[in-house]
Amino acid sequence: MDQFFTFTDEAFLKKERDKARKLRSSQWWKRKRASGICHYCHNAFLPKELTMDHIIPLSRGGKSEKFNLVPCCKECNTKKRQLLPFEWKEYMDSLKK
Ligand SMILES: [Zn+2]
Questions:
Q1: How close is the Cα of 40 to the center of ligand 1, in Å?
Q2: Cα(51) to centroid of ligand 1, in Å?
Q3: Domain spanning 35-95, CATH class
Q4: Which pTM was predicted?
Q5: Strand pairing category for 69-72 and 51-54
Q6: Which part of the chain is the HNH nuclease domain (predicted)?
């Protein structure tokens, strides 16, 4: 049973994607990415290697707000995409140990 409500409303997704695109070119994001640290694995990367990730995906009702956007390395991004939210949580917990 899927306990998550899935947001597939195109207007919502378009608006949030537009907001994310604008934030990607902002000073706020450039400063955040300049740290070179992936939000999830805490490894160091070149800023250009980090992508913008929605902690709560747009498809799960997450928004393009600053608190929901983090720098993420390609490896974590790929892993996160393949996992369901609860599986990703298990992965995150395993990193903390
Ligand atoms: Zn990472």
A1: 5
A2: 10
A3: mainly alpha
A4: 0.81
A5: antiparallel
A6: 27-78
